[in-house]
Amino acid sequence: MTDTSEQLYGRRVPLAQAPAKLTGQTAVVQVGRRWRCQRCHQLAGETDRLPQNVPYCRHCLNLGRLTALTKLYTIPEPNRFRMVTDSPLTWSGQLSPRQAAAAEQVLARLKTRTSQLLWAVTGAGKTEIVYPGLAWALQQGWRVAWTSPRVDVCLELAPRLAAAFTGIPQAVLYGGQPVPYAYRQLTICTTHQLLRFDQAFDLIIVDEVDAFPLATSPLLQGALRRAQKKTGCHLYLTATPGEDLQRQIKRRRLAVTYLPLRYHGYLLPPLTVKIAWHWPDRLATGRLPRGLVRQLRAYRRRVQRFLLFVPHVADIAPVLRALARLGMTHGVGVHAADPQRTAKVQQMRDGAVDFLVTTTILERGVTFPNVMVAILGGDDPVFSTAALVQIAGRVGRHRDFPRGDVVSYCQSQTRTVRRAQRMIRQLNRRGRRLGGQA
Amino acid sequence: MRACLWCGRPIVVPVTLADIWHWGPLPTPIICRACRQRLQPIGSAKCPQCGRQQATVQRCHDCERWDDAFVNHAIFPYDAALKAYMQQYKFQGDYQLRLVMQPLIREALAREHYDVLVPIPITAATWRTRGFNQVTGWLTGQPFQQVLTVSAASKPRDQSSKTRQERLQTPQPFSLVAGAATVLAGKRVLLLDDVYTTGRTLRHAAAQISLGGAQAVTGLTLAR
Ligand SMILES: [Zn+2]
Ligand SMILES: [Zn+2]
Ligand SMILES: [Zn+2]
C-alpha cells in the first residue's frame, strides 16, 4: 500500500485524478431541487453557483471548495496499526481512589462499546481519568480521535497525550496546522476537522462537548456521527452538560459516570444570588451595588484576592474607576481580546495585583490558588449556565484553600442563573454521597 | 432574518419610523453592519499615481522607483479586511462573495473616464481549478473586452507567493488576442485588476494594450 492510499483510509478526500481501482463519489449531489454536500451534508444555497451554473458548498469552504464536479475518494478504515502488546500508557501519575473508580467505570463501558458521558467538575482531572480506557482501546488496535470544538483545548492536549502515550504516534489537525495530515492511530483534532473523515474511528472522545459551537451546530454534530464507525462508540467529556445531554441522561439514553468532586475532595462552592436593582444605572454614575461594595471591602481588610466578572468589555473601565474611588487600586481589567492578557494573568498569579476585573473565564487551566469570585450582572445573557458553573469552579481550586464565595449580583433571578444553582446543588448532592466536604 | 453573506451572522435591520411608512419590501443589505464597517475605502490622502493610502498626497516611494506615467486608482487599502476577503473569494473560491464588491466596483467604474474596459485575465489552469475570473465576477453588465490572454508557462507560481524582487522580474505573461487592435485603436483603455501590489502585472498588461494601439491606458484595482 502506498502513502496515497493511507491518506484515504476512513476519509473523504477530493482528488483531481482518480487513483487506480477507485471510483469517486460526486461531492455535491442533487436532491430534489436542491444540492447537498457529501462532506458536510448541508444544503447549498439556491444561488451558490459558479459561472457555468455549477453548485458548490459554502458551508465547508475552509476545508477546500467542493463542487458538483468534484469527486471524493475513500478507502474503508483498515486499522492498519502496529500491534501494541504492553499497555501503551507511559504516564507515571497516580489517580486518587475516586478518580480510579471513575476510570474503571469508563473502561468497563468502552469494553462493551457503549457510548457514554463523563461528567466531571472542573478540576476533577478528567483527562487523566480517560487514560486507562484510552490505553485499553489503543491496545485493541482501535483508531481513536480526541476532539474538541476549541482549538486551544486541542493544542493543550496534544503534548500531554504525547507524553502519556509515548509509543503512540499522533496526528494533530486544526485549521492552519503546520504539519500535513498523516494516518495515525491517535488523532487529536478540532471537531470541524472530523468533516474529512468517514466511519474512521472506533472511539471518538469529545472534550468539552458543551462548548461553542458544537452544542448548537447540526453540521458539527453530523461530522461527529459520520466520523464514528458503525460499530464504534463515543465518550463525551464535560463539566457542564447542556439541556439536551441532561435530558438524555435522565431518560437513560446515555450512560454517565459522575465525578462531582474536585481532586481534593471538596464540594463546589454554592452560587449565591443577590439582587442589585439597576446596577448599570448606578455604575453609570460611578457607583457599585452596596452589597458588592461591602463584600469587596471585607476582602480588602483581610487582603483576600478576588475576581470580579462583568458582562461586557465596556463595563471594565467604569468598574475599575468605581473601585478606585473606594481606594481599591491594586487590580487590573482584562478581557478575551486584550493584547496584554497573558501578562495581566501572570501578574495575578504572581500576586503583583490583588484582583482582576474580567469578562472571561480565561483559558482552561488558568487557576489562582486562593481567590473569591463576584459576578456583576450574572443574569446577563452573556453568562450561560455552563459559564456560571465554570466561574464557580474557579474558587477553591487549591487543596489548602478549598472553599470560598461565589456571589452574583443580578437585576432579576433568571432561568440560566437558577439552572446554574441547580446544577451545582445536584453535583454537590452526589459529591456528598461520595464523602465530599463542604 | 437573513445571514450576512460574508461572515454568516444574522443581519439585524433596525426599523425606523420612515421605514414603517415605506410601502413594499425593504431592501435588505447583503452584508452586516460589522462587515460593512470593516471595509474602509481609501480617502483623499493617497499617492496620486498608484492610489496607495498614505499620509501625504505626494508620489509614493514605489512610484518614484517606477518613474513612469502609469496611473492607477484603488478603492481599498490592502488591509486585514481586504486580505480576508480575497482569501475567501479568490483563494477559497467563494464565488458568491463577488456580490459584496459589485456595487463598489460599479460606483468606481462610473467615476473613471474610459472607452474600453479590459479585465486582467486568468490562466487556463486557474479557470480549471477556481472556475471563475475574480475580476469579471465583480462586473454587473458593464461592457468589457477580453483582449488579453495570459500564458500558463509564464505564470508558474501565483503572484501572491513571490517576493517583491521576484515579482518585479516576472517576464511579460500577456499577449493580445487576434483582432485586438481593432478594439483598441485610438481608445482610452481602463485595466481592471484585484490587487495592485508592485504594479508589475498592470504595467505588463498596459504595455501590450499600448502596442495594440490604445491612446491611453490606466488602471483600477479593488485594493492597493
Ligand atoms: Zn460542504
Ligand atoms: Zn458580516
Ligand atoms: Zn504610488
From TrEMBL, chain A:
Domain Helicase C-terminal: 295-438
SMART domains from the UniProt entry: DEXDc, HELICc
Record GO biological process: DNA recombination; DNA replication initiation; double-strand break repair
Keywords: ATP-binding, DNA-binding, Helicase, Hydrolase, Nucleotide-binding
Domain Helicase ATP-binding: from-to ranges: 107-259
InterPro entries: DEAD/DEAH_box_helicase_dom, Helicase_ATP-bd, Helicase_C-like, P-loop_NTPase
Source species, domain of life: Bacteria
Source organism of this protein record: Levilactobacillus spicheri DSM 15429
Protein name as it appears in the record: Superfamily II DNA RNA helicase
Stored PANTHER family: COMF OPERON PROTEIN 1, PRIMOSOMAL PROTEIN N
From TrEMBL, chain B:
InterPro entries the record matches: ComF/GntX_DNA_util-trans, PRTase-like, PRTase_dom
Record keywords: Glycosyltransferase, Transferase
Signal peptide: none
Domain Phosphoribosyltransferase: 110-208
GO-annotated molecular function: glycosyltransferase activity
Domain of life of the organism encoding this protein: Bacteria
Family in the record: Belongs to the ComF/GntX family.
Protein name: Phosphoribosyltransferase
Gene (UniProt): comFC
